[in-house]
Amino acid sequence: MADRILTIEDSLEQMRNCWNGDDLAVAETIKRLFRARELFFSDAKIVMEQFNLNVGEFDTLVSLRLQGPPFEQTPSNICQANLVTSGGLTKVLNSLEKADLISRRQCADDQRSRLVKLTDKGKKLIEEALGIVLARHEKQLSDSLTRDERDMLNTLLRKINQLGMR
């Protein structure tokens, strides 16, 4: 018999059958959230690879682009926005600067810090890549959820994400 790819629901059914009597509702919810994240993330990674970007580089460019003109941030702000360490960001910034996607200059307010700025080449690249990612995500969402369901999902996710703010 050929191996069949298990869906998340198959996996959850197997978990329920093997875990006697306990309420697994929380595990089911978390596994579904993780699986949904993985589906969207895997799809986005395909686009990142097409643009020769890794996740850290993509997130950094997005962070700069979403900042608005002049598309500039301190490394500390980029770290906070992307939940990365300064050591991890340094490698990303070096790579992006070498590819002429960002530039760095001394911060006028703080001589110890350098501002990171999106170059025209970086802006063009991330606008194209992000446009593709968002279009693909929009299709995935609209194929599976109604507008009301998406609104409800956003409301529920907002509530969950506020847990970290308490």
TrEMBL record:
<dbReference type="InterPro" id="IPR036388">
    <property type="entry name" value="WH-like_DNA-bd_sf"/>
</dbReference>
<dbReference type="InterPro" id="IPR039422">
    <property type="entry name" value="MarR/SlyA-like"/>
</dbReference>
<keyword id="KW-0804">Transcription</keyword>
<feature type="domain" description="HTH marR-type">
    <location>
        <begin position="23"/>
        <end position="162"/>
    </location>
</feature>
<dbReference type="InterPro" id="IPR000835">
    <property type="entry name" value="HTH_MarR-typ"/>
</dbReference>
<dbReference type="InterPro" id="IPR055166">
    <property type="entry name" value="Transc_reg_Sar_Rot_HTH"/>
</dbReference>
<keyword id="KW-0238">DNA-binding</keyword>
<dbReference type="GO" id="GO:0006950">
    <property type="term" value="P:response to stress"/>
</dbReference>
<dbReference type="Pfam" id="PF22381">
    <property type="entry name" value="Staph_reg_Sar_Rot"/>
</dbReference>
<keyword id="KW-0805">Transcription regulation</keyword>
<dbReference type="GO" id="GO:0003700">
    <property type="term" value="F:DNA-binding transcription factor activity"/>
</dbReference>
<protein>
    <submittedName>
        <fullName>Putative HTH-type transcriptional regulator</fullName>
    </submittedName>
</protein>
<dbReference type="GO" id="GO:0003677">
    <property type="term" value="F:DNA binding"/>
</dbReference>
<dbReference type="InterPro" id="IPR036390">
    <property type="entry name" value="WH_DNA-bd_sf"/>
</dbReference>
